[in-house]
Each structure stands twice: as structure tokens, then as C-alpha cells.
């Protein structure tokens, strides 16, 4: 395989990591969003104010896409300098890092959305515990941050 092909494949897979994370973010925000809409509907039916803070719980899974974008940009910066491929020999490593990193971000976003869904329902019903719910989402977020940091540590 030529250096040019190795570079193109590596960049393609690095972007695939962003795509996987974006899919996870879409699924996670969709799950949390469905729960928030249901919780708001219940509030309206009961004549209660619908808590605007549910949007924070719904949007939490979006950060995983940003983390994978950072990973993609760093892979690109390590493969290319001034448009020239400088580390084609690391393309296999970068491909594995991108695939596993993107998968980790995707799964984290999905489960953060599921946790956000539960938090949305609980907060809308009780109007209490918002900080606790955010802490749980933060714990799930930590998995995504670890995946990013560890992928960066593995790069030459």
C-alpha cells in the first residue's frame, strides 16, 4: 500500500470515528428528548410549569461528537505536516485508535441519553435533584473523556 493510500484510509477512518460518535449523539439526544417531551406533556396536563432545565439533560450526549472531532484532528495533524504524509507507518495504529475511540464515544453518548431520559422524567415529576442527575450524566461523560485521553496517549 502506498503512503498516499494509507493516509487517505487513515483520514477516512478518523472521520468515521466522528460519524460513529455523531450517530451515538443523535441516538442519545433522541432518547433523552423523547423522555423530556413526555415529561413536559405530563407537566402541562397537571397544570405545572414545564422545566426548561430538561434541555440540559437532553443535550448532554452532544459532547461525544466534539471529543471524536478532536481525536480526528489530532490524528490528521500527526499524519500530515504541511499537506505531506509524514507518518504512514502509523496508519494501522491510527485506524485502530479511531475505530475504538469512535465506538467508545458512540456507546457513551447512547447511554448518557438513556440516563438523561430517566433524569428528565424524575426531575419533571419532583422538581428536585437536578444536580444529582447532572452528576450521573457527568460520570457517563467521564467514560467518553477517558476514551479521548487514552486514545491521545496511545498516539506516537
Brief summary of the model shown:
The chain is mostly helical and 156 residues long. It is built from 5 helices and 2 strands.
Key features of this structure:
81% helix, mainly alpha, 3% strand, 156 residues, two-stranded antiparallel ribbon
Spatial order of the strands in the main sheet? 1-2
Low-confidence stretches at least 5 residues in length (pLDDT < 50)?
A: none
Structural category is mainly alpha
Measured by DSSP, the beta-strand proportion falls in: under 5%
Spatial separation of the terminal alpha carbons: 21 Å
The biggest beta sheet, please?
A: 2 strands, antiparallel
Mean pLDDT: 96
Sequence-ordered SSE layout with sheet pairings:
Layout: H1 3-45, H2 54-59, H3 63-79, E1 80-81, E2 84-85, H4 91-126, H5 130-154
Antiparallel strand pairs: 1-2
Molecular structure report:
The protein has 156 residues and is mainly alpha-helical. Helices cover 81% and strands 3% of the residues. It contains five helices and two strands. It has a two-stranded antiparallel ribbon. The longest helix has 43 residues, at 3-45. It is elongated. 40% of the residues are buried. The mean pLDDT is 96.
Amino acid at each position: 500500500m502506498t503512503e498516499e493510500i494509507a493516509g487517505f484510509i487513515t483520514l477516512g477512518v478518523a472521520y468515521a470515528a466522528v460519524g460513529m460518535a455523531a450517530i451515538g449523539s443523535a441516538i442519545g439526544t433522541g432518547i433523552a428528548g423523547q423522555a423530556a417531551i413526555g415529561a413536559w406533556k405530563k407537566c402541562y396536563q397537571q397544570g405545572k410549569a414545564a422545566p426548561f432545565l430538561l434541555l440540559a439533560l437532553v443535550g448532554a450526549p452532544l459532547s461525544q461528537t466534539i471529543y471524536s472531532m478532536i481525536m480526528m484532528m489530532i490524528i490528521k495533524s500527526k499524519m500530515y505536516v504541511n499537506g505531506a504524509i509524514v507518518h504512514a507507518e502509523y496508519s494501522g495504529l491510527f485506524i485502530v485508535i479511531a475505530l475504538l475511540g469512535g465506538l467508545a464515544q458512540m456507546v457513551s453518548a447512547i447511554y448518557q441519553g438513556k440516563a438523561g431520559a430517566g433524569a428528565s422524567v424524575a426531575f419533571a415529576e419532583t422538581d428536585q435533584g437536578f444536580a444529582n442527575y447532572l452528576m450521573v450524566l457527568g460520570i457517563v461523560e467521564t467514560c467518553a473523556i477517558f476514551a479521548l485521553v487514552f486514545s491521545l496517549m496511545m498516539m506516537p
